[in-house]
Amino acid sequence: MADVKNILKNMTIEEKIGQLMQQNANVFIKTDAQITGKQFNNGYTQDELSNIGSVLNFKSFSEVKQLQEEHLKNDRNKIPMSFMMDVIHGYRTIYPIPLALGCSFDPDLVTRCTKMASKEATAGGVHITFTPMVDYVRDARWGRVMETCGEDPLLNGIMGAAQVKAFQGNSLREKGTMATCVKHFAAYGGAEAGKDYNTVELSRHVLREYYLPAYKACIDAGAKMVMPSFNSLDGIPATMNKWLMKQVLKDEWGFNGVTISDYNAIGEFLKHGIFDNEKDAAKAAFSAECDIEMISNTYLHHLKELIEEGVFTEQQLDEAVLRVLELKEELGLFEDPYRGVTEEDEQTAFLTPDSRTLVRKAAEECAVLLKNDGILPLSKDVRKIALIGPLADNNQIKGFWACHGRDDECVTVKEGVSALVPNAEITVVKGCGNLFDDYDRSGFDEAVKAAASADVVVLCLGEPQNYSGEGNSRLDIVLPGVQDELAAAVCEVNPNTVAVTFSGRPLSFARLSNNVKAILHMWFPGTEGGNAAASLLFGIANPCGKLSMSFPYSVGQCPIYYNHLNTGRPKRDDSRYYGYCSNYIDGPNLPFYSFGYGLSYANFVYEGLELSSDKLTSSGAIEAVITVKNDSGLDGKETVMLYMRDLVASTARPIQQLIAFEKVEIKAGQTKQIKFNITESMLRFWNDKDELVSEKGRFWLSTGYADHLIFTKEFELI
Ligand code: GLC
Q: Which residue from 586, 603, 611, 622 is spatially nearest to 670, judged by alpha carbons?
């Protein structure tokens, strides 16, 4: 064990501030271009460079080794640097984007994928990952919805906590484990108009009720770091927002780990117009106890001066630096700056057959069957298949934030289908332009011709993978370009057409659904996407995903979410012109596909929901039993959900709120009873006095899925 307190005692103030700095790897690497360009070492002196405490955006373990060795030669205190990276949904073997992982409703699957990613990433030299991202989302226009597990606080929190535990294991000294950094604290997903980095204006009630719980679940699961978000909240950038960073994070939640700014976020206080100088920016961030400054250099340039001026004490600096050193100690870096990793590890760790099998299974479990007029699964005896669309023979299906994943290691739909039905005659036609989003219809004739002569057409449509992720918000959420038209033209000549779709966000499928007989949504499924799509299309795998985020009928509905309030004038039915109630005169209120929706090739019949009592005391429990029958000849998995509604409360409550779920395997013809225990704590909400309370009165419990609840039963909290 390193005596970090003693190390701290021997550090100069410059060395201490260095531990609060994080830079890209390339500032340390002298290449010709960099030596001549400004990029080289970012203008740091050699001492400043030697003091930097952590690094991000490095290429490999061999680069980590080179930088660490160089650093330890120059660092007087021999404090190893920590190496951090965004391992969001895989390191080299890529599994589905987190929004898709949410659709699995399977924390164990998330755990297995995360452990695989952690093993690969640690072999790549990663010590800390900027994961999980658990920003609560309601607006499909926002590009970073792909990075979170969706619009339900409970699901997001469970999946986030599973990632924390899987990355961190039982001890950070175990090989293959790494520390986690939960982000982006807070409410980055509430960006107005779904526009990335945009202003967030939310009430404390909404923050506490919807946006904050998942971060807390990750901190309760043991996350070692927290990253505040770029956005302002109440007009104050989150990174300097003391209500968030001190009152909530530390005083209320008891977080005592390391905080790290997002990329240049402290420097961006000037862009926000909060300050006109970096010294004040440094003062505000450090006052809010943001420990590490990523990329910007306000601490380097001003923290020493602020301490000399008495704005901060050196004790405050020591506290921040101690948190950083203690995390490095917990990671075992002082004993072994390479954490037991060797260059040989990189030769064997990536893309193993087991990893490929796992991520294919994950892609199968995360896919959501949105429509099926009986055409799926396809027969393996099919003779002539037309694969049509920009994603038919396209390996760009790993999604954004895919770390060191490579497109050329991803299996395309064409490759997957060809492998599964080698005797079929497969014709592949892109049908539209290279960029997906252009208006090039020159491929339509060839596509229609191929469709006309095929037994079945599989349309492979969607967004380019750079249409979502950071900085990639959209004004609309329809299929880009002329893909809807392509689908209509193809279906005109061959009604036996199904669509396999790819995206990093919910899309509006209203037009597509009018044309095709089935829609299988793959999200961005990762390295084994094509094999997973083929397995699902031909029934080798039975779809079981349920939507983690609503699919709007139109972008005009955004933000749209299932757990909404009733309002004083709820829409009473699907009548189009009810008038004077909360609805649109030119379209529906409900999303096109609701949260929790997803079909199977099996037929799950919900036979009832029974409660053990209609009275619940604050110390008691009610058992809810849901009976489901698989009334088909196919085994399958079903996520059984329990929704609650608090009918009368001092603060308006959502019309439906997921409070429990369980994914169960139900064999052909089998009936299962799924049991949940309901306790008072599951009924609590944040009232207008900032208190987490439950209130006596009537509640409903239902099953089914959002907007389509069944077997509603009433009980009373007494
Ligand atoms: C990015 C992202 C953040 C990420 C960081 C480091 O701008 O906002 O999620 O962890 O920079 O890559």
A: 603
Q: Whole-angstrom Cα distance, residue 89 to residue 109? A: 12
pLDDT tens across 289-317, in order?
A: 999 999 999 999 999 999 999 999 999 99
Q: Tell me, what's the pLDDT at 717?
A: 98
pLDDT at 1: 85
- At residue 85's C-alpha, the angle toward residues 79 and 89, to 5°, is 150
3-state class of 284 per DSSP? helix
Q: How far apart are CA 718 and CA 716, in angstroms?
A: 6
Two structure tokens written together for 226: 């927290």
Query: Which residue in the block uniquely carries the two structure tokens 């970096």?
Result: 278
> What are the percentages of helix, strand and coil residues in the chain, rounded to 5?
35, 20, 45
Q: Rounded to an integer, what is the distance from CA 593 to the centroid of its chain? A: 20
CB 490 within 8 A of CB 527: no
Protein residue with its CA nearest to atom 10 in ligand 1 = 130
Mean pLDDT of 625-646: 98
Q: Which amino acid is at 437?
A: D
CA 593 to ligand 1 centroid distance, Å: 31
CA of 714 to the centre of ligand 1 (A): 45
The CA–CA distances, whole Å, from 533 to 48, 461, 709 equal 51, 13, 30
- Ligand 1 pocket mutation pick from 84, 86, 468 by most atoms within 8 angstroms of CB: 86
CA 415 to CA 422: how far, in whole Å?
Answer: 10
Q: Which amino acids bring their CB within 6 angstroms of ligand 1? A: 56, 86, 130, 183, 262-263, 470
Q: Say whether 262 is catalytic.
A: yes
Spatial contact of 230 and 241, defined as CB atoms under 8 Å apart: no
Q: Report d(CA 10, CA 427) in Å as an integer.
A: 70
Phi, psi of 626 (to 5 degrees): -110, 125
Q: Could you give the CA distance from residue 535 to residue 419 in angstroms, rounded to a whole number?
A: 10
Query: Which segments of 336-434 are extended strands (E)?
Result: 368-372, 384-388, 425-429
Which residue pairs from 111-116 have beta carbons closer than 8 angstroms and sit at least 24 positions apart in sequence? 111/162, 111/163, 111/165, 111/166, 112/166, 112/358, 112/362, 113/89, 113/358, 113/359, 113/362, 114/162, 114/163, 114/166, 114/167, 115/166, 115/167, 115/176, 116/90, 116/354, 116/355, 116/358, 116/359
204: left (phi over 0), alpha (psi -120 to 50) or beta: alpha
Classify the phi-psi angles of 692: left when phi > 0, otherwise alpha if psi is within -120 to 50, otherwise beta: beta
| For residue 400, pLDDT beyond 60 | yes
Q: Yes or no: say if 358 and 112 are a contact pair by the CB < 8 Å rule.
A: yes
CA distance 25 to 40: 11
Whether 138 and 560 have beta carbons less than 8 Å apart is answered as yes
For residue 292, the SS3 value is: strand
Query: Amino acid letter at 345?
Result: D
Q: How far is CA 550 from CA 111, 286, 455, 478, in A?
A: 24, 39, 33, 14
Tokens of 18: 């260095």
What secondary structure does DSSP assign to 171-227, as a single string? -TTSTT--EEEEEEETTGGG-GGG-TT--B---HHHIIIIISHHHHHHHHTT-SEEE
